């Protein structure tokens, strides 16, 4: 049995660590470099860094911050936001990232997934999926729609279809974020996570809604996720990563314990 992963998420806006609820009302809460260092020391399995306004602002990702984060951690590091080309991917990898997360640009140019996988290997390419429950329709048969540009633009694309298509194109992992659950601390979107996790062969990271360790237990077992992204519950120091892993380990979830 493979170990489940706990992955703190650093949403960055204008160089500051930020957090919102359902992709709105973001507030700045600290320094992303210092947060990355703390989570690494606490036993995080990976770190995810998102420059959350790079795509909507049509600017390049903040490579200088990527480089500074990479200098203080020794665990896998995934970076997303404003990555439009294979050359953008190369710049971020050279700055210290092991994985590239593509979201809005992959929807607009799906071949970017295949090009990235060919250049760097599928293991480097993570498809970020921001998903909204819009109800069942002919166009959206699962009821879950892909939304891009930080929750601003609805695409008319069904989430399950897009997950399968991305896998076919060469994505090595999916980070599945529920807009409805994001920042609420009321639990992950289990139905969505289970739907995608059981329909693709690549790892799925659940994102959006973590508020207590029980939520991670639910999504890693009932939701069948391979990893869980966390933000608010550690950003606000409600829990440490050690607290979370100790709880999950006691419940029989296989974890990497670094202490």
Automatic annotation (TrEMBL):
The UniProt subunit note reads as follows: Heterodimer of HisH and HisF.
What PANTHER family does the record point to? IMIDAZOLE GLYCEROL PHOSPHATE SYNTHASE HISHF, IMIDAZOLE GLYCEROL PHOSPHATE SYNTHASE SUBUNIT HISF/H IGP SYNTHASE SUBUNIT HISF/H
Q: Which domain of life is it from?
A: Bacteria
A Gene Ontology biological process noted in the UniProt record is: L-histidine biosynthetic process
Annotated protein name in UniProt: Imidazole glycerol phosphate synthase subunit HisF
User: What are the record keywords, sorted?
Assistant: Amino-acid biosynthesis, Cytoplasm, Histidine biosynthesis, Lyase
| High-level lineage | Bacteria, Pseudomonadati, Thermodesulfobacteriota, Syntrophia, Syntrophales
**InterPro entries (alphabetical):** Aldolase_TIM, His_biosynth, HisF, IGPS_HisA/HisF, RibuloseP-bd_barrel
Entry's EC annotation: 4.3.2.10
* Reactions performed catalytically: 5-[(5-phospho-1-deoxy-D-ribulos-1-ylimino)methylamino]-1-(5-phospho-beta-D-ribosyl)imidazole-4-carboxamide + L-glutamine = D-erythro-1-(imidazol-4-yl)glycerol 3-phosphate + 5-amino-1-(5-phospho-beta-D-ribosyl)imidazole-4-carboxamide + L-glutamate + H(+)
């Amino acid at each position: 049995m493979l170990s489940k992963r706990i992955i703190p998420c650093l949403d960055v806006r204008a160089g500051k660590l930020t957090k919102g609820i359902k992709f709105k009302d973001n507030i700045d809460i600290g320094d992303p470099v210092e947060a990355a260092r703390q989570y690494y020391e606490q036993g995080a399995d990976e770190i995810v860094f998102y420059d959350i306004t790079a795509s909507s602002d049509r600017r390049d990702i903040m490579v200088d911050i990527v480089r500074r984060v990479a200098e203080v951690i020794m665990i896998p590091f995934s970076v997303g936001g404003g990555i439009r080309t294979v050359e953008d991917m190369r710049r971020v990898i050279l700055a210290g990232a092991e994985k590239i997360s593509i979201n809005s640009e992959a929807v607009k140019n799906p071949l970017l997934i295949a090009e990235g996988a060919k250049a760097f290997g599928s293991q480097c390419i993570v498809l970020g999926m921001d998903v909204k429950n819009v109800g069942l329709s002919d166009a959206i048969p699962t009821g879950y729609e892909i939304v891009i540009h930080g929750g601003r633009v609805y695409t008319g694309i069904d989430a399950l279809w897009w997950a399968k298509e991305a896998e076919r194109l060469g994505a090595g992992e999916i980070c599945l974020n529920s807009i409805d659950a994001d920042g609420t601390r009321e639990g992950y979107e289990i139905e969505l996570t289970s739907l995608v996790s059981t329909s693709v062969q690549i790892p799925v990271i659940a994102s959006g809604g973590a508020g207590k360790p029980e939520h991670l237990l639910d999504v890693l077992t009932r939701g069948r996720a391979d990893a869980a992204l966390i933000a608010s519950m550690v950003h606000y120091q409600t829990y440490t990563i050690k607290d979370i892993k100790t709880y999950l380990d006691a419940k029989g979830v296989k974890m990497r314990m670094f202490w």
